[in-house]
Amino acid sequence: MTALIAIDWGTSSLRAWRLDEGGEILERRRDRLGILKVEGGNFPAAFDKVVGDWVKVSPGAPVLMAGMIGSRQGWVEAPYATCPANAGALAEKLAAVPGNDRVRIVPGLSLREAEAAPDVMRGEETQIFGLDLEDALVILPGTHSKWTSVRGGGIDWFASFMTGEVYDVLRRHSILGRMMQDAPQDGVPAGFAAGLRYALSGRAGTLQSLFSTRTRGLFGELSEQESAGYLSGLLIGAEIREGLAALRARKVEPKDAVLVGADALVNLYASALVQAGIATTIAGEDCSARGLYRIARMAKLI
Amino acid sequence: MTALIAIDWGTSSLRAWRLDEGGEILERRRDRLGILKVEGGNFPAAFDKVVGDWVKVSPGAPVLMAGMIGSRQGWVEAPYATCPANAGALAEKLAAVPGNDRVRIVPGLSLREAEAAPDVMRGEETQIFGLDLEDALVILPGTHSKWTSVRGGGIDWFASFMTGEVYDVLRRHSILGRMMQDAPQDGVPAGFAAGLRYALSGRAGTLQSLFSTRTRGLFGELSEQESAGYLSGLLIGAEIREGLAALRARKVEPKDAVLVGADALVNLYASALVQAGIATTIAGEDCSARGLYRIARMAKLI
């Protein structure tokens, strides 16, 4: 019997789970209906389309959502909880959805530190609490990668890096993309190791090393098949340097990290992090569902 | 009487000058016919269109060109001279243009250093030699900014930064651009000082600080009118940090620099460099013409 319907509703896609009272996953769904694809912002209709059948056959089950669905562009804005925060703090701040009293949204997390710009996450906090870790560095690679410090079971710091989006816009719209051929989606692409090595060497900064994608091509050191992988290695290497520098400023020298995310990308990060002396563990696929279940329990929704 | 027709022929535009025997500029031209806009790569036709009238009425005058016209995508590839190089070294390596024995092209410069990626310039070397400096740091802001070290009258080192292009693709194609309103073209744009200050503080690396354009917007610290200026300040600040770090690795601590380029941009860089403790001098508009004249003299074309 369904005890909870859990949804991780992001910008470009969503995932939904049906869970029983013990937290076992009964059913999984993926949908491309990310919040930016919801026509006219009609979230009640999109919600019906995605999980309406589940809701109908599980009359008692609450629905808990996390991710960009709680942003200003989502169904209803769920104000950020402030860092440091644990799962219990999020459970106390669930946002109600007007017109549908079965649905609640987990707040995102914000971080404000002296002399630093603010930072935010929505959805990643729920994935992390799904891991139920005591102390760890958790890295969530992606469009906007997150490095997250877990201490005493709560998130005490995090930082976002625009790695994925910078790669994407340079690949598709800059002069660097002109001489690139598509690299395979899986595995470590050709050229990646060279780009990573150059970035980790610290021999040149990010804006300077990006130009080397072009010059190495000009000088025959990099083929068109290797350029995209090289650029990816440069940017992931730059993120790792920045992440480690940010941790060093906090007197933290990590030896290992937990990776959360899509298979191909976390494998790439794992291969990169080991070059920087960081051993990695890759988390399973369903940490959002586990995080939503944990928070639902704490909020006594189930 | 015309003694030299000088052309700085770049990717997206060109400038041409008619000079007399003493190097005085008799006439100037600008044209949007950059090498990527020359239909079917028909450079002889484009050349006729741009300065055909000058060539006709100046039967004895040689034509000297610099810039991307000497690249693989240009009229004829002028092999790079290697750094360190002075104006005389370029004068010895002028490339001939098949089918037009009045036209020659100044080679670009390449730099190869141990453990570093290669770097290249085309056109900037001629601008710099037009300044006729003995020892200086010359910065040429733009799509691919160049920091150039002049020692004993020659160029002994340089570095390229993709600042302008990264700004452009993020502005036009990333999530950061979505909440930006156009900033005025001239003067220091609103938000620039805040972005510059954050980048120069070193509080966050480049990929991390880019995300602050978004979060400061979310938290009301940055208006839509200020976001583009803030992003520009972040990136120019990042370039300055990288440039100074690269010089520091060469045991150079510059106190001043010469800026070469378009008015609005060099003024922006001047305002930024002073925040990093670098006093600047802004070079005049015609250094390409002066460089081409100097090299033509050394090559005994005139």
Describe the structure in your own words:
Chain A contains 10 helices and 14 strands. In chain A, strands 3-2-1-4-7-6 form a 6-stranded mixed sheet, with helices on both faces. In chain A, strands 12-11-10-13-14 form a 5-stranded mixed sheet, with helices on both faces. Chain A is α/β, with parallel strands linked by helices. The model of chain A has no long low-confidence stretch (mean pLDDT 95). In chain A, helix 4 (163-173) packs antiparallel against helix 8 and helix 6 (192-201) packs parallel to helix 8 (224-249). The first copy, chain A, is globular. In chain A, a hairpin with a 6-residue loop joins strand 6 and strand 7. Chain A has helices at 43-57, 87-91, 124-131, 163-173, 175-178, 192-201, 206-218, 224-249, 263-275, 287-298; strands spanning 4-9, 14-19, 25-31, 63-66, 81-82, 95-96, 103-105, 109-111, 119-121, 136-140, 145-151, 154-161, 256-259, 279-282. At the A-B interface, strand 12, helix 4, helix 7 and helix 8 of A face strand 12, helix 4, helix 7 and helix 8 of B.
